[in-house]
Write a structure and sequence with these properties.
1 helix, three-stranded antiparallel beta sheet, alpha+beta, 52 residues
Length: 52
């Protein structure tokens, strides 16, 4: 519905959110996503592009 580049971030200590979003994004993208860590912001997350 909203094609383009996406970034989903969570606090590093929020393991339930990390597990939830990793499962959802992995299923939605068929495993075609990247992960990142932003230590300064205390965040981890996922990026993907669904514009195709």
């Amino acid at each position: 519905m909203f094609p383009g580049g996406w970034e989903i971030s969570q606090w590093t200590n929020n393991l339930p959110a990390q597990n939830f979003w990793k499962k959802v994004v992995a299923e939605y993208t068929s495993g075609k996503y990247n992960t990142f860590t932003a230590k300064e912001e205390n965040e981890v997350g996922l990026t993907f592009d669904n514009s195709l």
